Amino acid sequence: MFWKWCFRLLIVFVGLWLFLDLGSRLGAEILWFQEVGYLQVFLLRLVSRGALWVLAVGVSAVYLLGNLALAQRLKYPQSLKIAEVREEEAVLTVGLKNYLSPPYSQLNTAKVSDGRMRPFRFRWLLPLALSLSLLAGLILVHYGKIAVSYWYPAFNNNIPIITPFRLETIWELGRQLTAQVLSVGLIVGVAIAILIYSQFALGAIALSLSVVFGTILFYNWTKVLQYFFPTSFNNTDPLFHQDISFYIFSLPLWELLELWLMGMCLYGFIAVTLTYLLSADSLSQGIFPGFSSPQQRHLSGMGGLLMLMVAFSYWLSRYELVYSARGVSYGASYTDVNVQLPAYNALCVVGLAIALYLLWRTIFWRSKSQSRRFIFYGLGIYLFLIAAAGYILPTIVQYLIVQPNELQREQPYIQRTIASTRQAFGIETIDSITFNPQGNLTTADLKTNDLTIRNIRLWDQRPLLETNRQLQQFRPYYRFPDADIDRYTLETEISANRPAQPPQTTNTANSESTERRQVLIAARELDYSAVPQQAQTWINRHLIYTHGYGFTMSPVNVVGTGGLPEYFVKDIGGNNQGALTTANEPIRDSVPIGQPRIYYGEITNTYVMTGTNVRELDYPSGSDNAYNTYDGLGGVTIGNGWRRGLFAMYLKDWQMLFTRDFLPETKVLFRRNVKNRIRAIAPFIKFDSDPYLVAAEGSPAFPGRNNYLYWIIDGYTTSDRYPYSDPNSQGINYIRNSVKVVIDAYNGSVKFYIADATDPIIATWSKIFPGMLQKLSDMPTTLRSHIRYPLDYFSIQSERLMTYHMTDTQVFYNREDQWQIPNEIYGDKPRPVEPYYLITSLPQVPFEEFLLLLPYTPKQRTNLIAWLAARSDGENYGKLLLYNFPKERLVYGTEQIEARINQDPVISQQISLWNRQGSRAIQGNLLVIPIEQSLLYVEPIYLEATQNSLPTLVRVVVAYENRIIMAQTLEQALQGIFQPELTPEPPIIRPFEEGIPPG
């Protein structure tokens, strides 16, 4: 009795704990979304996900458990003896049967003999029951792994979500899962449990699968919402002539329903069949009496629903041919269109006919139907058609008809793949221009392009960060996680010789006193993990170490004393200039600083409480520290009421309940990592890996205290459902840079702006969440001037362009013009060239602009073949330009220039000398810079100690045409290239040897 009460108390305690945990999560999330201003977004997601979970769990449980309950009523009783089973074969006499069990024999004979099928003997019964049990285990494990992969994405990244019902699919699933020992053990364990404890095991699996189906729909809420708010692409696929929106918004939902309903119907049919097969103690007696007439009717109805799902699966498989990997190009190939598609049509029609017949027969049941055997014949023929028409025949056609004449057969389908891939990745709008470097650059051209010269990047992110960590961190708990390249319009007394932006948008009055400078900006964030272990207390973690402070800004092309970088903005408060130190008065007037506290950043992964009795550490100042009290808009008020308990439960931080440092105005700031912050608000958008900091005036779009630090993050709408589009290594075959997100580094405010209004996917999300996404024109001009073409998007497009710049089908088939990204030497090891930002002017463009560039070389060659540029300024934002170099002449590639640098006897000797005595030379990024109708190559060389690294810029290498020079500064190197000293070489004087007459 005592243990029973203990067990009941444990159940009550666990239930109460789960209730409080779920309640605290819900309450905290509601308060947080209310803080950031997206409560309606959260509530719509919550309602839609909850409704989908309840719908899937409810329908699945009712269907599976209802059919199992009906099967329990119709199954044979365990007391049924083997004699009654053999009565169907007339093996024993009526007298013997009456002798064994006269009353039950008469009752049971009248009950089960009418319309009953022939018995199954043990040699057929055991393999059938075991196979069905293993298949049930396979279904449970497969769907369970899908659900677990949603909870823990790293658990298994190769889970196939789309599983049409085909023999090869089940075989492939079995092969994949049985390759894992744990999966094999689970499948076998489930099968054994079914054979021994059939009623309990089948019911438990039904409940488990119901929850799993609900979880799958719960995590796929985006597909359901998109289905009801589609946006037309105004473009159709070339095979079925459906609008692309059907594949992006409708087909994913149909595939999701197929995944759910197929699993439900298949398991339901297996579970009911096993319930009947294992009744009457059949395994122990070695024989199954045969399915009775009610059992046959029940199985006929469930079989009809299953075959209906099979027909539906093959109907979907027709459209999935546009994602076929068969053939030389992605999408439906010759074999798919001419063989596989008719096969799927036939299998769909035949499957539908069988399903309708089974359902008709279930409704109008006749226990002694003569057509019963035709059902088995029809199913056998159908299985043969699946194997023959769905697999064997396409394979034969592919090998015997297509491959001997592959180019001719596949040519129209290759063209479809090329066109669709270029559309899906946004590379069909690239302006392709022939660029023939002339090699006639002069000193006058350099003066004309002085803004380009003054913005040639000599400082890479890595050496600058290393230098920052040595010179600008000041305390171990500060860290510079990243340095970002941007451009700022700075006041100056020097005017450029050409405008720095399109003439139609240039302000003539200001152009003489300002210029655009390319800079590296790095946020000084607080890294609590670097606080000494002895000081990592609860108060320090959550009340004192709350924020980072300030940033550094360095021009990319200026070298200071000792080869160190110069700083436009540096240091921390404690001087007469305010919060941060600026290089001069024009910089102070150009770059807004204010009080640059960073409460929301890239590494702010702790939650903090502000407005408490404890002062927050602001920044170190001499022998003491400066302190601050947060007065921003961020955070949720917790005070001393019920909210304190709610957040203590939500954060699992029970010290919040007992601390005496909280005040009525105390706030908790959590989810402060900017990436986590925006993903929580908009999980349906894929975000760039590199948020970048901007110092600009953001009001009035961002109300609150005068803060000038903002994070900008690019967001992408992606899909893997674009027909005929060849996916990249991440499985993406459609992408658009549709969103720009701005986060206030002090207040935590988040704004989403639509960057590409032509994208149908972002238009659909605007319909689903009205008011969430704003127009890009609503972004403050000061912030909009800092948006840039995103690096991740550019990298994906440039990777696809290496193959899909070939638009001729024969050239594409032969892969004769395949490109690759060249290598460069960075440090002392080769690595692929990364896209880089520059302020320069494009050929035949009369103004400098902020560009993202990447060179290409031919496959297995090292000379430049093309050069891709993405524009980031003004009305030209988002435009791509491809400059093709002539194939009949040599244009030096990065690897050729690197080889020339390392083969130069003077440069090589100097680098070898530096790589001794506890130091090493680092060769920086090799930049290919277009100037007028020529290409200039620039590579910085840094020197760092093997210990206590403090990289310094020691040399700059410049290469132009056949000339190459290394100097201490860029100016000296350019002067050496374009103004060589014409000093004649000294004559060689040979000594006169005595005894040998001259001549």
Q: Would you mind describing this structure in some detail?
A:
- The chain is 45% helix and 17% strand.
- The chain is built from 31 helices and 35 strands.
- The strands form eleven sheets. Strands 3, 24, 27, 28, 29 and 30 form a six-stranded mixed beta sheet that branches.
- Mean pLDDT is 86; it is low at 88-113, 157-162, 503-511 and 988-999.
Measured by DSSP, the beta-strand proportion falls in 15-25%
Structural shape: globular
**Average pLDDT metric:** 86
Poorly predicted ranges (pLDDT <50, ≥5 residues)? 88-113, 157-162, 503-511, 988-999
Measured as a percent range, the helix fraction is 40-55%
Alpha-carbon distance between the termini?
A: 126 Å
- The secondary structure category is alpha+beta
The radius of gyration over CA amounts to: 36 Å
Q: How can the largest sheet be summarized?
A: 6 strands, mixed
Number of E-type strands: 35
- Helical region count? 31
Notable traits:
single chain; six-stranded mixed β-sheet; globular; disordered C terminus
Chain-wise SSE layout:
Elements: H1 2-36, H2 39-74, H3 82-86, H4 94-100, H5 102-112, E1 120-121, H6 122-151, H7 167-178, H8 181-196, H9 198-219, H10 221-228, H11 244-277, H12 282-285, E2 287-288, H13 293-320, H14 334-363, H15 372-402, H16 406-424, E3 431-434, H17 443-448, H18 450-454, H19 461-471, E4 478-479, E5 484-491, H20 508-511, E6 514-523, E7 525-526, H21 538-544, E8 548-549, E9 551-555, E10 569-570, E11 581-582, H22 585-590, E12 597-598, E13 608-610, E14 616-621, E15 624-628, E16 636-637, H23 642-651, E17 667-669, H24 674-681, E18 686-687, E19 692-695, E20 709-719, E21 734-744, E22 750-754, H25 760-768, E23 773-775, H26 781-784, H27 791-804, H28 809-814, E24 819-820, E25 823-826, E26 829-832, E27 836-840, E28 849-858, E29 866-871, E30 880-884, H29 894-903, H30 905-914, E31 919-923, E32 927-931, E33 934-945, E34 952-960, E35 963-967, H31 970-978
